[in-house]
């Protein structure tokens, strides 16, 4: 017996169970036929006789308001006989998993003022754009478009007749176009299955269009170009909601000429970015190689149905695997927001799985500790409304993906971090493991992002651990560390006070150093650090932490060289190889052949032919790009020579010595 707390509807010889997308429509997750059903009883105790339904007019979506009905369905299905479903959703999920598609997530991107919000307003029939501060999108908004609404919008299209909509809807995410919002943009685009790149036909490609394009390219995300504001072409005659071909027929030759000229210009601009595009006049069958351009007006509505239809049919046709619904919860925090009366809430995108009221969840916390709480309420805006816009929320006991949801919890989400994953703690999960996984995931993504954006931290095995009080201060610190003049590679990161586990992590690294910004070191951690030889540089100002680290590095180098001084110098004679002078002055980097003896790191070198002028000391030796400590007679290696005494005159290849001179170990130096 399955207990369906969802709304359901009866149709001829069938009962459909699912989630209500809006008053009159149901996102069907299971359909039982008359033959499968034995008893159906609703929450009022009324028994529904399936066999008499044949004679009744069907009660189906669009004909009457759906009732909040709790139904008990006793189903005579052998394959489901052993399954005890805790709720409607889980009762159906196993049998449906194979062929149930989730709604695609579509991210709307583009340069500032290209018309992203206006486009969404036009699709929804709302006016978010006017309500935004200065008309600028400040956060990522999300809107769910149920299939029924999409079908309504595209019903006039010829192509819609012979296509079947398999996805339950479309989740649209509006991202800000202003420069400071790069992080938000990458957050939104990271979630999306397909994107709409909005380009103003009058402006063409602008810096943030190119930035969005690069994000999409780096993530291999397919996209459609919405060439917006066609109504701004001089002399344009508006044709609301008309397909572009029809609208173009109404235009004068001058308008057509200007349109063609601008399209050619924009196609060329995309080509310059390595992207092939073409107007989507007939169906674009080579969409992966050639991206479609759909000319639209978000103001007067031209070609919007075509754009919607392309988004839906292209995703469901080409991304079946990606869109196949999975029970495993995949959920990302998009925004952390304080809402009057609700406290600090999180807006999440549920990509897969089900969230239920009362679920225990784990979310990454800004101070290094994860937030463990329970879902107090699951809220969605009314369908076709935006999550950002204040209004009435619908309350749910459970929600199946794909959806944008506002979540509240008893203690709020004050320190939750946007852009990180939300985990549900299942009955068999170990809470500690889930907490660790949540924080690990976040740390990894911060480090990967940092490395991707040009950090040198991947160079060699070296690198420090960086730790700060909050995520944003950690990100700021990482920015400083990778600045060209500093360039300190980072191997590990952490948030919050330095504890024993952080010291242990650093102790297994080559450098054994922690740079700590604005955090405390627990006494136990400091004790362990002393035992394990981990150096911790702490400070409230990033520059000072870096300065202390640099100073220590310099002192260590000097100590190393001094230690080498005390060692016996091995005699060697080196010949400079032709075309192998890579740096002419301090540090001199040259390829040499060992003619006599052994060349070792630390060996001071001089030039007998030039009055034994000392050119410096060998700091490192590389053989086939690998660091070595020494090289024997006959070997060809690359050596780096650093000056020994800052007060001495700098020796330079080409001025003080040249290719004919042999380099010889200087036995009496030090
Ligand atoms: N004529 C015309 N104006 C439009 C169209 N689409 C948008 N606009 C106008 O362009 C301006 C910017 O539109 P928005 O929708 O706020 O642009 P946006 O891309 O969301 O901008 P950000 O949120 O700042 O990134 C507004 O004044 C809109 O009214 C269009 O199709 N035609």
From TrEMBL:
Keyword Cell inner membrane attributed: no
Recorded family membership: Belongs to the TRAFAC class translation factor GTPase superfamily. Classic translation factor GTPase family. IF-2 subfamily.
Organism source for this protein?
Answer: Rosa chinensis (China rose)
Record-linked InterPro entries:
EFTu-like_2, EFTU-type, P-loop_NTPase, Small_GTP-bd, T_Tr_GTP-bd_dom, TIF_IF2, TIF_IF2_dom3, TIF_IF2_dom3_sf
This one is known as: Eukaryotic translation initiation factor 5B
Keyword annotations for this protein, in alphabetical order, are:
GTP-binding, Hydrolase, Initiation factor, Nucleotide-binding, Protein biosynthesis
The record's annotation in PROSITE patterns points to: G_TR_2
Q: What's one GO MF term for it?
A: GTPase activity
Single GO cellular component term: mitochondrion
Tell me the Gene3D superfamilies matching this sequence: P-loop containing nucleotide triphosphate hydrolases, Translation factors, Translation initiation factor IF- 2, domain 3
| Residues of the Tr-type G domain | 101-320
């Amino acid at each position: 017996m399955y207990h369906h707390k969802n709304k359901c509807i009866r149709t001829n010889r069938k009962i459909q169970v699912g989630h209500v997308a809006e008053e009159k429509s149901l996102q069907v997750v299971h359909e039982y036929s008359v033959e499968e059903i034995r008893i159906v009883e609703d929450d009022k105790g009324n028994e529904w006789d399936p066999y008499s339904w044949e004679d009744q007019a069907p009660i189906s979506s669009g004909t009457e308001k759906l009732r909040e009905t709790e139904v008990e369905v006793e189903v005579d299905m052998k394959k489901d006989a052993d399954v005890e479903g805790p709720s409607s959703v889980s009762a159906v999920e196993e049998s449906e998993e194979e062929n149930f598609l989730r709604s695609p997530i579509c991210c709307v991107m583009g340069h500032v003022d290209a018309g992203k919000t206006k486009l969404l307003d036009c699709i929804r029939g709302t006016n978010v754009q006017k309500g935004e501060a200065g008309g600028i999108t400040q956060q990522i908004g999300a809107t769910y478009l149920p299939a029924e609404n999409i079908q309504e919008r595209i019903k006039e299209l010829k192509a819609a007749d012979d296509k079947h909509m398999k996805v339950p809807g479309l989740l649209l995410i509006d991202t800000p176009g202003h420069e400071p919002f790069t992080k938000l943009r990458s957050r939104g685009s990271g979630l999306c299955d397909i994107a709409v790149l909005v380009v103003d036909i009058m402006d063409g490609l602008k810096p943030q269009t190119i930035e969005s394009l690069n994000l999409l390219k780096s993530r291999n995300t397919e996209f459609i170009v919405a060439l917006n504001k066609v109504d701004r072409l001089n002399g344009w005659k508006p044709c609301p909601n008309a397909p572009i071909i029809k609208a173009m027929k109404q235009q004068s030759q001058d308008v057509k000429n200007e349109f063609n000229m601008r399209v050619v210009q924009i196609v060329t601009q995309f080509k310059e970015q390595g992207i092939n595009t073409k107007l989507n006049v007939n169906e674009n069958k080579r969409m992966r190689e050639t991206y479609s351009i759909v000319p639209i007006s978000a103001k007067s509505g031209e070609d919007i149905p075509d754009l919607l239809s392309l988004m839906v049919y292209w995703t469901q046709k080409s991304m079946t695997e990606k869109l196949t619904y999975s029970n495993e919860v995949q959920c990302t925090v998009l925004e952390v927001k304080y809402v009057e009366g609700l406290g600090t809430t999180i807006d999440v995108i549920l990509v897969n799985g089900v969230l239920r009221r009362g679920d225990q969840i784990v979310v990454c916390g800004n101070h290094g500790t994860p937030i463990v709480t329970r879902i107090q309420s699951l809220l969605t805006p009314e369908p076709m409304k935006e999550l950002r816009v204040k209004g009435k929320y619908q309350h749910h006991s459970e929600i199946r993906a794909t959806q944008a949801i506002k979540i509240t919890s008893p203690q709020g989400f004050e320190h939750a971090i946007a852009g990180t994953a939300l985990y549900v703690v299942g009955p068999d999960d170990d809470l500690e493991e889930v907490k660790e996984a949540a924080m690990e995931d976040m740390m990894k993504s911060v480090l990967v992002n940092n490395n991707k954006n040009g950090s040198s931290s991947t160079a060699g095995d070296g690198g420090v651990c960086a730790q700060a009080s909050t995520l944003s201060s950690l990100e700021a610190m990482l920015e400083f560390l990778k600045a060209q003049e500093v360039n300190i590679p980072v191997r590990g990161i952490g948030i919050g006070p330095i504890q024993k586990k952080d010291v242990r992590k650093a102790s297994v690294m080559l450098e054994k150093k922690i740079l700590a910004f604005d955090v405390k070191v627990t006494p136990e951690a400091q004790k362990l650090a002393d035992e394990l030889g981990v150096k911790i540089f702490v400070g409230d100002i990033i520059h000072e932490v870096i300065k202390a680290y640099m100073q220590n590095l310099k002192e260590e180098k000097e100590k190393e060289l001094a230690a080498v001084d005390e060692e016996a110098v091995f005699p060697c004679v080196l010949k400079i190889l032709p075309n192998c002078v890579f740096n002419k002055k301090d540090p001199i980097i040259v390829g040499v052949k060992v003619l006599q003896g052994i060349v070792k790191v630390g060996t001071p070198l001089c030039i007998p032919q030039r009055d034994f002028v000392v050119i410096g000391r060998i700091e490192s030796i590389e053989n086939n790009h690998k660091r070595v400590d020494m090289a024997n007679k006959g070997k060809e290696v690359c050596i780096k020579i650093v000056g020994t005494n800052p007060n001495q005159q700098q020796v330079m290849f080409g001025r003080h010595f040249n290719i004919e001179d042999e380099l010889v170990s200087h036995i009496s130096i030090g």
